UniProtKB/TrEMBL annotation:
This is Glutaredoxin domain-containing protein. CDD domains: GRX_GRXh_1_2_like (cd03419). Belongs to the glutaredoxin family. CC-type subfamily. Keywords: Cytoplasm, Redox-active center. It comes from Sphenostylis stenocarpa. PROSITE patterns: GLUTAREDOXIN_2. It holds the Pfam family Glutaredoxin.
Amino acid sequence: MDMITSMVAEKPVVIFSKSTCCLSHSMTSLIRSFGANPTIHELDEMANGQEIESALLQMGCQPSVPAVFIGQRFIGGSKKIMSLHVRNELVPLLKNAGAIWI
């Protein structure tokens, strides 16, 4: 948990992903489409990726990726992000976190 906290500290948007996960890629593309520049952690390309994935699962990320943090808070996976987007709540969240300025 502390590892995750330090990885998302001081970054407006962080996405924990796997390079082979199409949903992770889609969430990254969606967030970038608003002008945000998320920090991406590809768990399958990191030496401690399995350890991070276990920590994400313990936090309630089901499945473990994509796991999207906005403003240092765990927001959710692809279903939650799409739900926020459909309800026009994603952009205000990104603005409040300082990820976009429009």
